[in-house]
Known about the structure:
Elements: H1 8-14, E1 28-39, E2 47-58, E3 72-78, H2 87-99, H3 108-119, E4 129-138, E5 144-152, H4 162-172, E6 215-216, E7 223-225, E8 235-236, H5 237-241
Antiparallel strand pairs: 1-2, 1-4, 2-3, 4-5, 6-7, 7-8
Amino acid sequence: MAFLPPGLAQRASEAEVTIRGENLRDGEYTLMHLLTTYESKLKKGPALIIRHRIMEAKAIKEGVEPNPVGTDVSYFMPDYGDAKVMLEPNYKGYALGLLGLDQNKVDKKKLAETLDLIGGERQLARGMLIRGVTFHTTKKDGGDFIGINWHPVAGENVPDAPSVKKRRAEIEASKASNWKPEEEEHSTNGASAPDVPGEEAAPDVPGADPMEGWKQHPKNATYFFRPDKTKKKAYTKEQILAGQATE
């Protein structure tokens, strides 16, 4: 496994996000991020590869079964040929979806730092969850193209969230952290990366704080509420991180 080459994260942070390709079958998925690796010695050329494990899968197209839960899949972004121009916007689009950020509002310098952390030794996203929904579009040659739109999973995209840290530790204790690509570059099975201190202080990730907008209740410090909501329901921090806050 190797990490991002110098400059790629900065270029990706400045790229314009378009559509994202993925080798998943039609479906709506919840995926666990296993690792990000830049492989420079593949037969056809170098590529950025993000490995996931499918945690949930839901059929969205009649007659098409989604990839099964427990399967490991690769998000393969070639750094060669005609597809090379899509690597940076696709990588940026993935990070924006993971963290729930707006490309028109995010600070590009901070985003570049975050992209480096996701694709470097820190492996920032390991153990986080991301939701992916497939879609179809027509290629220039008239052929069918299946892509995927990325969406955040509230409370499961923060480095120091207890559930993320638990999954990270489990991944690092397994072979999933030392995955190497087979000659079959688009293989949907496999998984692995180097040890990353799970208890390390979480870095400054732009826009990834799930407590943003919540204020501590003046009468009970255990609870938090959103002052911008008409119905000011109160929740514990644990409920907010778990995505159980509906207001």
